[in-house]
């Protein structure tokens, strides 16, 4: 393959976490367990909310969308890694790598936007309770989710299209367990200045912007809770957004930790290990956070499991 010529590229190699054969079964079992927990945990949330009419509210509508996105988010990376370990291969095709990168960026953006929409929902519920049903009507809820999909898909398409314009050198080894866009750009022989600028600008706009929106929503929520006279009322108001606040903190802290640790160590292997936190661990923990801290979800899960057990 000629240097700088990407017409002959057919595949990349995902180096993963370790090349030692004795560690592969442990890694396989570890990630398979986490993937199954993520899959069934989020699926239970979706089924429990869908099967109980009293949970057909904006908050739980957004929660089911988040659970669906978390399933897709994890399924974008983990199954391919498990399959490569199973067949003892590190290869991913060029088309497969680009596709994986597109869907990874798509579902990452959806996670961010849905968490922001859920923060707005809690803001309206606590700060404007008398107008909640009027403001958060089904039409607006559907529009917010649709806009989240459109913005995320457009951003992902832009990033992927720019990567498709790059030429690659002969070294096509990705020191990661999935096709992460920064790692792919580093393999390019082309000038990647524009790609990096778009990534940084998009990160500030599409991640930093929603984060500021979430902080603003919760500043208003805290301010409103302070004016509630009874301690019971304060506890009830805070408990309605405690689960969401926990998920937001987990997602943003792990994501920020990944980039800070990778910037500090300059180690691709360390970055791959740290990426497990927000790509696998966070989607796995989300169902537990919502079910353990939410009485309505716990009751719905118990009823759903009871109905499922009674069916022949």
TrEMBL record:
Domain G-protein coupled receptors family 1 profile: 41-290
Annotated keywords: Cell membrane, G-protein coupled receptor, Membrane, Olfaction, Receptor, Sensory transduction, Transducer, Transmembrane, Transmembrane helix
GO CC annotation: plasma membrane
Membrane topology type: Multi-pass membrane protein
Lyase as UniProt keyword: no
Domain of life: Eukaryota
Database matches in InterPro entries: GPCR_Rhodpsn, GPCR_Rhodpsn_7TM, Olfact_rcpt
Protein family (similarity comment): Belongs to the G-protein coupled receptor 1 family.
Name recorded for this polypeptide: Olfactory receptor
Organism: Mustela putorius furo
